[in-house]
Amino acid sequence: MAIGWPRDRKMTEPAAPPSQVSASREPTGRAPGATRSLTARLVTGLSSLLILGGLILAFAAFAYGRTAARDAFDRLLVGAANDIAASISIRDGAPVVDLPVSAFELLALAPDDRIAYQISGPGGAVLTGYQDLPRPTSSARDLVLYDARFKGEPARFIRVTRRFAERQFSGTVEVIVGQTLRARTQLAFSITRNALGGLAVGGIAMLAFAILIVHSALRPLERLAKGIAERDPQDLTPIRAAVPGEVDVLVQATNGFMARLDRQFATMKSLISDTAHQLRTPVAALRAQSDLAAEEDDPARREEIVVKLHAGTVRLSRLLDQMLSRALVIHRADSARRERVDLRDIALDIFEEGDHAALSPGAEIRLEIGDEEVAVLADALSLSEAAKNLLGNALRHGKAPVTIGAEQENGQARLWVRDSGPGPAPELRARLGERFTPGRSGAGRRGASSGLGLAIAQSVAETYGGTLEMESDAPGFTIAIVLPAAEEHR
């Protein structure tokens, strides 16, 4: 046997049992851990979005309203100042002002605002109007708009400069007209209020339509929940429902979960059925033998009965081990994560554990493994249980020596056990994967049963996409778990 390769052996421990979860149900109210409904989330999200957007649009609308109001009323100031400047004339070498009524009619369009004006000649001498009106900081242009305060109130001013170059008078005359900002502020707020009113109506309409759409979209979920609630507790058949693609993912996951539950229930039912069927007879026989031993006075006869009792307890123990092993393997098929497993490790672990010595004392066991990795994606514990059952079956029903090995060829990995006997009859091989199949004649005890060992091996092979193969050749009868080989590490 070739076993001297360097390797990093990793022992796979059985999965820890899941924590116990209370099965009690709440008769009313939401389920434990349930969060807010999608409708409530949508309403909250859209409301927050609309409020935030409304605040942003309110600032933008107010800024736009102030700009629009300023432009509108600035035109009134420009018109009034130009009218006043146009009314200035030169008489006897001095500027004379004839204030036009039209200028003040323009400014009267803002009735709540206060108006101020000043007309000054060369040297800043005030010809008419307020004496102390604020002046602009820049005097380079003939028309200047600026902000200042008038009588403690914010106001908007315009300065228009008219230049004269006549024989009797040469110089400049400045016209300053100001107006407070009450009408401008009112117009800006009016524009903002109108904009936000339209936004509020549109937002409420969007929110209402969104709620209707969500209710319509969630209606398939309500039908699905109703259908599941009305199901019989024993009905674990797949759910067939016309649902949107997004919900179909949930349906498929639920169907997968129910399929795993169905397999678990089937395993428990099978275990209970097998236990009731297979244990009744040997337990009754043990009880009868024990009753005979208690009533027997002949020491020789009593010793014979004790030997039969021991043999019966051994068979019963082996049967219980196989039943529990089968239940464990089927359970791990759905719960254990598939990992990269080297079948050489499985064969070597079984060979080194030496459990076969207790099963068949003195039997010769051999190991045949090579230097190349024989990797598969599976559960190491399940493969180990299956291989142990194959080895135990060969020791009980086959002929020594018995060999266990692993190899890979043509993209397939094989974990095999071979004994030196001829194997079962051809008509019996097709039934060896069934539970409690009668044993092969000519090998081992006559009429013995193969029990669950081969059924366990076949279940493990099918779980991981493989098969259970049997063949007879010159070395003897070989039975192997054949699985797809895993890809090489890169």
TrEMBL record:
Enumerate the SUPFAM superfamilies for this protein: ATPase domain of HSP90 chaperone/DNA topoisomerase II/histidine kinase (SSF55874), Homodimeric domain of signal transducing histidine kinase (SSF47384)
The record, for InterPro entries, names: 2CSK_N, HAMP_dom, HATPase_C_sf, HATPase_dom, His_kinase_dom, HisK_dim/P_dom, HisK_dim/P_sf, Sig_transdc_His_kin-like_C
Cellular component (GO) terms are:
plasma membrane
The main location class comes to: membrane
Q: Annotated region Disordered: where?
A: 1-33
Provide the alphabetized UniProt keywords: Kinase, Membrane, Phosphoprotein, Transferase, Transmembrane, Transmembrane helix, Two-component regulatory system
Q: Where is the HAMP domain?
A: 215-266
State the Gene Ontology terms under molecular function.
phosphorelay sensor kinase activity
Q: Where is the Histidine kinase domain?
A: 274-487
The transmembrane residues are 42-65, 196-218
If you read the UniProt record, what top EC class would you report for this enzyme, in one word?
A: transferase
Kindly give the Pfam families that the UniProt entry links to this protein. Answer: 2CSK_N, HATPase_c, HisKA
SMART domains documented for this protein: HATPase_c, HisKA
This entry's Enzyme Commission designation comes to 2.7.13.3
The entry's localization annotation reads: Membrane
Q: Which reaction equations make up its catalytic activity?
A: ATP + protein L-histidine = ADP + protein N-phospho-L-histidine
Residue ranges, compositional bias (Basic and acidic residues): 1-12
Q: Does the keyword ATP-binding apply?
A: no
| Name this polypeptide is given | histidine kinase
- Give the source species: Thioclava pacifica DSM 10166
Q: Taxonomic lineage per UniProt?
A: Bacteria, Pseudomonadati, Pseudomonadota, Alphaproteobacteria, Rhodobacterales
